[in-house]
Amino acid sequence: MPLLVIKWNLMRRNDFLRLLTLAGAGLATPSFAQNGPNTIEGESEVNPHFINSGPGFGNRLALTFDDGPTPGVTERVLADLSKYNLHATFFLIGSKVDASPALTRRIVEEGHDVANHTYNHPRLAGMSDNAVDQQLSKTQEAIIRATGVTPVWFRPPYGAFRREQGSIAAKLGLGVAYWSVDPKDWSQPGASAIASRVLSASQPGSIILLHDLHSQTADAVPAIFSGLIERAFTPAPFHSFVGAPYA
Ligand SMILES: [Zn+2]
């Protein structure tokens, strides 16, 4: 089948990987390695403004919560952060910010960082530049409207983002933040599994991915917070952990 072979050779690596991803898209939620995001869509290719961990010296790490604000769950996470005197970074969905502006404002008022996680959580890797820009811009506007804060970090849903799409984020002043510890709390494996996965994988410089989306994560945070403190980690929000990408 010479034609097939020629096409195969001409196919760019990324296009091939994307085809693989599309072929598998219906199978399951994305499966991430314990210590890094899935690389199948090329999202971990080198880009100076993509990060998946912070400084490894000292004992700091970052707690991040995606997919909120979620009434009924985010309040519980905030209460435990306050109880343990910790600060986190919340990667917010713009449409949920518009639905719960007071809860969004409370996140900022309690000293946490807010960041951009798109307007309605699409897979950006397959979208046009204009559509990606709309997802990011609308979310910036929603967060600014609710809190007065302009986010400087963005996290692509599912980690699905192409290297060249980084310039769209950069034009909006957004660095692209991945993660290094993924307990897969979105699959609801149980609060004790979530906590033990986080505690066994955390190390200095880790960026821990959690979701203020399901009650299991809220159930897990007291054990996560007390366990990190016992291990002498200092959880810090992005502004003091990795700073701003374009400052
Ligand atoms: Zn998400």
Structure description:
With 247 residues, the chain is an alpha/beta fold. It has one domain: Glycoside hydrolase/deacetylase (TIM Barrel), CATH 3.20.20. It has ten helices and eight strands. The strands form two sheets. Strands 2, 3, 4, 7 and 8 form a five-stranded parallel beta sheet that branches. It has a three-stranded parallel beta sheet with strand order 1-6-5. The longest helix has 19 residues.
Shape: globular
Helix content: 40-55%
Weakly predicted, low-confidence segments:
1-44
CATH class: Alpha Beta
| Main structural class | alpha/beta
Order of helices and strands: HHEEHEHHEHEHEHEHEH
Which SSEs are present, and which pair or pack?
Elements: H1 2-10, H2 13-24, E1 50-51, E2 60-68, H3 74-83, E3 89-92, H4 94-99, H5 101-109, E4 113-116, H6 129-147, E5 153-154, H7 166-171, E6 175-177, H8 191-201, E7 207-211, H9 215-230, E8 234-235, H10 238-241
Parallel strand pairs: 1-6, 2-3, 2-7, 2-8, 3-4, 5-6
Helix pairs in contact: 3-9, 5-6, 8-9
Zinc ion (ZN) binds next to strand 2.
